[in-house]
Each structure stands twice: as structure tokens, then as C-alpha cells.
Amino acid sequence: MNVRHTTLTAAIALALGFAASAQAARQADSQNDVREQAVGRALSNIESNAKAVHASRNDQFEARDVILDNNGAEHVRMKRSYRGLPVIGGDLVIHNNRAGKLASVSQTLTHEISIDTHASLSKSEAVLNAGVDFGTAFDGVSDAKLVVYARGKAPQLAYEVVYTGFMPDQTPTEMHYFVDANNGRILDKWDGIHTKGKPGGGGGNGNGGSGATCDTDSVGTGRTLTLGNVPINTSSCSDGSFQMVDLSRGGGYTTDLKNRTNGSGTTFSDADNTWGNNTTSDRATVGADAHYGVSETWDYYQNIHGRDGIANDGKGALSRVHYGRNYVNAFWSDSCFCMTFGDGSGSYLPLVALDVAGHEMSHGVTSRSANLTYSGESGGLNEATSDIFGTMVEFYSNSAYDQPDYLIGEEIYASNPGNSKALRYMYNPSLDGASPNCYSGSLGSLDVHYSSGVANHFFYLLAEGSGNKTFSNGTISSPTCNGSSLSGIGRSKAEAIWYRALTVYMTSNTNYAGARTATINAANDLYGSATASDVAAAWDAVSVN
């Protein structure tokens, strides 16, 4: 049996980007060669181990990412298609040992796909069925495209239809529907917009004004709302002005949406490189918060995990502030490769706190690695990943103005003495009134901002243990679901384990059981069997057995 595969040179080159200098270009070429060779070995291993990956002659594979370990092991992330149709939930990671032989496979597909790819339902019927669910408040709809939906018990032929519009609170929505291509039933749906969560529910263009060029790195002062006065990287222009463009971090730039809900916005510019006045009376103030928060998150990923930006390609992203009117949320969008921050309303400040920026940027990291589907248990793990790394950014930055803790979004409240309020509480998720502390079989039916609670709880217990700890909100302790006592392995080990699990072992359809396996594997890789046992004990403590 022959398993067809595709040539990946262009895709790998695109993913890696291109170096500017001749020496860097040679190094990049060498790295590209190494990665292409790893892809070739992975494809060869798929062909010779078709049963292990549940592949037939009708399957095609294309590489999305390559990770090379120092010991010579290779991890090649693949997307799968069946008879030319994308397989939703069919992605996998091929793990090769240092000799290039297949060591293991990370996947959620359980058997070979064998379905008829001729639809009984028409495209227009699929669009109509999805539209009935979405409602009338839409401003765009995609053509229906055939896919293989493989997130359920058995693969099914389906249409994917995307409706776009706005929710009543101004949050944009990119709802992906999967409609059974034979009977018209909606199999699944999820939003392409990933939000911070609702309170109360429990590269720049390089040009200045008048045609000036802005291509020199500079450091200004951000007079922020939440972090005091901080240094921010900007670009200086040939006309003497400055722009909020960070040339040192891939050209990431921050814009003022001027209370609109679409477009890229206007890049902040300034005459003296001092941005804001520590209050919302100056529109640049919250721009400085967002710009600095994104830079701290970039540095966290680079210095702690060796990741060069969101997509690991050295390219910065767009940050948009002043979205909508009285908008109490923030979100990440893959379609614009951007983060967007609302101004808050009433008792809520603009949502530009450090852990908010870290949370939203981490959604981008997830989308460029495991790409955890924003629905069911995988959606909860997606949200938890952003909470985990948003929190770790707080600890990395260690600001006296926003002391690190395991609260999510505590700085968005206009009045919050003793940090008594938060969107989510990682050490005791049920304190928000909606998130469970312990796993149950119904977890996947919850909103992803609540099903994240179990993974948040796991991470806290893994890092800090179950004893008393003191943070910005006083002395806290974390309950366990099985009555056990845990000592914790420390934040540095815990964050490294979660990052490796995300980037090496998880796939788009990973559930809580899969996350347990992924983190145990990651712990074994990094620290050995004793730490892997600690990881298993932390999962036991939140009832993921």
C-alpha cells in the first residue's frame, strides 16, 4: 500500500521565514535543509507505518511545523486530507527518534477513514442550515466547502460554512459550522474569535506623516494605566516623529481603532516619544499598556521557551486598542493576526492589563502550534493555555504595579481592594461561580472559559502544590479533588512542561485525557520519571485519571 504525500519545501521555507544577512541566510538555509530532511523522514515513516497513523492510499499529509530536540529526536506536525478533503481532527505529530525511525504518534483519530465523499446535501442547503442557527445578524458568509469531520466517534462527510457578524456586546464572531453533508444536521460549531472572557459571568507600515520613513529602533516612555511608567520600544521617523512600532520584536505595532469595530486602526504617533499620561484622558495611555504587555509576552516566550514570536517566525503582530464603545472584553483573531482590546465600561477599566495581553497573544501561539479547537474539552484546554501563559508572563515581568498571582484579569476592575475580584481563580476555579475544580464527563459541554478551570487548577497544583501560599490577594490554598497533598515542582518546570506538551504532543482535538498523556510525556522528556509522576499526581488531584 502506498500513502501519498506532498512536497513540503515551499511550506517549510515559508514557515521559517528568510534571514536578512548573508551569514544568517546560510544558517537559515542549513536549518531549512535539516527540517526538510526531518519532514522527509516523517513522511517515509507514515508510508511504512500506515496502520500506526490509520492511513490509507486515500490520505495525504502536509507538514505544519517541525521541532528538533537537542538529542536528535524530531517532531513533525502534520495536517491530513482524505481524497483531497481536509480532515478536521485528523492532524497528528510524528515523533522520530535520533536515528530517524518512528518512535510514536500523537493523534486522536482512532481508525482509518473510509467514507463516500459524494454529498447528498447541496452547498446552498448547508449554508441555509447553518444560517438558521446563526440568525439574521450576519455580515458575511463563506461558500460551503466539503471536509471530513473527524472529531466525533466516526469520520463523517460534512460541509464547513463560516458566518461572520457581531454579537450584541460588539464582539465579532467567525462561527465555523460543520453540517452533515447527507442529512443536514449541524455536527459541531466553534468561533474563530478567542476572547478573554466576560466579566460578571462567573507589523507596522514603517511610514510616518508626509511620507516620512520610520525605520530606526528607539526607546520611549509609556505612561501606562496599569503599570506605571515603563520603557517601550518604538520607531523614530525621518521627520522627527515616533511611531508605536516595535522594530526589535518583528515590527509589532499598536493602533487606535477610534472606537470602530473593524479595520486595522491608525498607528499611534508622537512628537516626543512619551506616550500617555497614566489616565484614560490620553488615548495613547492604554496603547502603551498594550504595546508593553505584548513586548513582555514576546520576551517571555523568547527567553523562557526559545520561541521567536507568536508563529516562531520572528514576525510581530498588530495590537488594536479603543475597540467599539464601552466594550468589556479583549480577543485574538487569526484572520487579522491581531489582538484587540476594549475600553471597558462603568466598573471595568480598559482591558489592557498585563495578563490580558499575555492571554490574547498566547491564543496566537496555540493557533500556530497544537491549534486546539475552540469547542468542547479542547476549547477548555485552549483557554487554559492562555490563562497559564498569561499568568506566567506576570511572574516573568514581576511588576510592582501588577504583582504576579494566579488571578486572571484582576486589574480590569476600577475598584478592587486586596484583589478580591477576578475573572478566574486558577488555584480554586469554582470561586467564579461557574468553573469546576474537578473533572467530570460533562465538562466539554461548558463554555470554554469555564471548562478551562480544571487545567488551570492542575497547573496551579503542579507548580505550587496544595499548601498555603501568599500572593497579591493574600494567603491562599488550593483544594484537591482526591484529598491528596501536593508539594509542587515550581513554576519554571511546570511552564516548560506545559509548553512542550502544547507544541510537541497536543493536537487540535486533544481532550483532558490527552492533555494528561501529553504533559506526562513532556515531563519525561525534560526531567525524567520522578517529575512525570508528579505530573500524574497533579492530574489525579483534579480527577483526570
Q: What would your notes on this structure say?
A:
30% of the residues lie in helices and 23% in strands. It starts with 8 loop residues before the first helix and ends in a 5-residue tail after the last helix. Mean pLDDT is 93; it is low at 1-21 and 200-206. Helix 6 (376-397) packs across helix 9 (491-505), helix 8 crosses helix 11 and helix 9 packs across helix 10 (512-527). It folds into four domains: 9-107, Nuclear Transport Factor 2, Chain: A (Roll); 123-191, Nuclear Transport Factor 2, Chain: A (Roll), CATH 3.10.450.40; 209-367, Elastase, domain 1 (Roll), CATH 3.10.170.10; 376-540, Neutral Protease Domain 2 (Neutral Protease, domain 2), CATH 1.10.390. The strands form five sheets. Strands 1, 2, 3, 4, 5, 6, 7, 8, 9 and 10 form a ten-stranded mixed sheet that branches. Strands 11, 15, 16, 17, 20, 21 and 22 form a seven-stranded mixed sheet that branches. A five-stranded mixed sheet has the order 18-14-13-12-19, with helices on one face. The chain is an alpha+beta fold.
